[in-house]
Amino acid sequence: MNNQDITSLLINKLNLEKAYVTGDTNHIKIIVIGNLFKDMSQVKRQQIVYTPLIKMITEKHIHAVSIMSYTPEEWKKNKKLY
């Protein structure tokens, strides 16, 4: 599964506004933006993003994941930093 496939999977499964996936199978960096993250802790946000990726992680198709999650409002405020 390539980065575009992972992006599509996350957007479709989590109903995200945007998702950006970079890196390779050793380490991928994920930035996700969606209203579902409103009023959620960072830990809960990461748990939600991991859920559709669990099979790929347990089957060692993905080794390490870095996740940054934002509501659309947080993204508009902070995206210039990335």
From TrEMBL:
Pfam families: BolA. This is Putative DNA-binding transcriptional regulator. The keyword Metal-binding does not apply. Keywords: DNA-binding. Belongs to the BolA/IbaG family. The keyword DNA-binding applies. It comes from Buchnera aphidicola str. Ak (Acyrthosiphon kondoi). One of its GO terms (molecular function) is DNA binding.
